[in-house]
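Worked example (supplementary).
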Amino acid sequence: MKLNERSVAHYATCDSPADHAGFLRKRVERHHHHAHHHGTSYQRRWFVLKGNLLFYFEEWDSREPVGLVVLEGCTVELCEAAEEFAFAIRFDDAGARAYVLVADGQAAMEAWVKALSRASFDYMRLVVRELEKQLEEACKSLAACCKSPRRSSSSGRKRHLSNSSLLPVQEKPTTLENGYSTWGSGGCVPGGATCPDHDGGQTKPPPLPPRRRSAASSATGSPAPGLPPAMLESPVSPETIPFSKLHNWYGQEIAALRREWQERQKRGHP
Amino acid sequence: MRYNERELLSLARQPAEKAAEIRMSVPKKGSVLKKRLVKLVVNFLFYFRTDEAEPIGALLLEHCRITKEEENVFSISFIEEPERKYCFECATEEQCQEWVEALKRASYEFLRRSLIFYRNEIQKMTGKDPLEQYGISEEARFQLGTPRQ
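After joint prediction of all chains, the assembly is encoded as:
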């Protein structure tokens, strides 16, 4: 069976994140292998785990891998081999060989076993689906308690409007629009679908952050007109408006506030 | 590069996320479109001669580019060799779109980015790290700010 080996080798050596890496001794498998036989030998290899693929190299700076173990469907177990800190990667398939690996110490062995047993695509997919559900639920409950302009019980905690969590445009999951997931049902509205200026009052604009309120109302006022939107404390949920529009909206507010403040300065300090 | 072909063949026999008979060509000179059974299982795309049990080949779908070409056609190429394209001619435009969407989401790296995104969003919204309950919040593969590829 052919495999796109060149691309696979490239994936192994490029700088995408490795989930785990380190030296391990790999047992050499011979044809007539028995559980207990003399003359077992091991080869020290540099192992790199990326996703559900375990690559091994002759050296940590080798240009291409010597081999690959596709981990989907495997089990990882501690090994009753003669070696200390040994563990094995096994597959369901009858007659399939096991990969016996030996770590440098207890901690290294445990770290590898942990990393390898969570390496499957299936496992990752499960976790993602679970988080997807949780986000949907969190959004629903936030929408439920976000009926009034008052902030939710999570006061005192800064919510940054920074977009560090937004994924780069070309690589984002296709379910995202403007950085927010589009949920099929429930209380959440897809990003971009509602907007204060278009919506005729159907959706409330985001509540004014307290800092701004006090600045506007105090006579002497020491407001911070230059406050970047990222520093404002205000709950943002996908139910309101997408980040880019929010950014503009607050930006205009700040510009207006600044003008107001400057007017007051002129009046107050002739 | 050695690899556990036996396990890969076993994977090819697993239930597929998506499978269809699609005309396909490989990036070799003089290659023509041939009807193949194309099967998506986790981050691998297997392709079989339609009457055979063992795949002719497998494509690991990491660091690849899925491109919608002309009508009914999409292609798969890999980052380091963008001109070498595996072309797929579907029966309908709809089938073509479905495959493009499915393949774009078929990489481990895509799943990882999704997870990091959801984790971050949930944390912002609830103040809690959703991975803590699983005891995996410290795992390298789930960290924010991992270097982009």
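Two points are worth noting when inspecting this output. Chain A touches chain B through 68 residues (CB under 8 Å). The helical segments of chain A are 5-13, 106-117, 121-145, 210-217, 243-268.
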